[in-house]
Design a protein that fits this description.
There is one protein chain. It contains 3 helices and 5 strands; from the N terminus they run H-E-H-E-E-E-E-H. It is α/β, with parallel strands linked by helices. A hairpin with a 5-residue loop joins strand 4 and strand 5. The protein is globular. The termini are far apart.
Length: 135
C-alpha cells in the first residue's frame, strides 16, 4: 500500500482508539466566563461544566485565555416573526467571537434548565464539529 493510504488510516485509527474527552477542540485552553446571575446563566454554567468546559463566574487577571458569554434575543420582522436566541463566546482579550449559537427561542425548551442544557449541547456539538456553522 502507498503511504498516502496508510498514513490517513493510522490517523483515523488513533482517533477511534484514543478519542478526545473534555473541552471541545476549538476552545481547548479557554475558560468560559459567565458573570450574570440570572436563572438561565446559573443553569448554563452547570450544564457547560457537565460538557467539559471550565467555567468561571468573575474576571480574574493573569488567567488562561477566557471566552465571555454574551446572550441576546431578537425578533425577525415580517408576517410570521420568529424570536431567536443568540449566544456568543468572545475572547476577552481580542473580542473575537470563538463560538456562536443561534436558535429559535421556541426550540430551546420551556424552562431555564431545559434552555441551558440545549445551549450547552449546541455549543458542544458545534465546537466538536467545526464544519457545522451557526445559522
Amino acid at each position: 500500500m502507498s503511504r498516502w493510504v496508510v498514513a490517513p488510516c493510522l490517523v483515523l485509527g488513533a482517533c477511534v482508539l484514543f478519542p478526545q474527552r473534555g473541552t471541545p477542540s476549538s476552545l481547548r485552553g479557554y475558560d468560559v466566563l459567565i458573570e450574570t446571575r440570572d436563572s438561565l446563566s446559573e443553569y448554563l454554567a452547570r450544564a457547560m461544566v457537565g460538557k467539559g468546559f471550565t467555567v468561571r463566574r468573575h474576571v480574574k487577571g493573569g488567567s488562561p485565555p477566557t471566552a465571555a458569554l454574551i446572550t441576546f434575543t431578537f425578533r425577525e420582522l415580517g408576517r410570521s416573526p420568529i424570536a431567536w436566541f443568540d449566544a456568543r463566546l468572545a475572547d476577552t482579550r481580542s473580542g473575537v467571537i470563538v463560538a456562536a449559537v443561534s436558535v429559535p427561542l421556541d426550540s430551546l425548551g420551556r424552562t431555564a434548565a431545559a434552555r441551558a442544557h440545549s445551549l450547552a449541547d449546541s455549543f458542544a456539538a458545534r465546537l466538536s464539529h467545526p464544519a457545522v456553522s451557526a445559522p
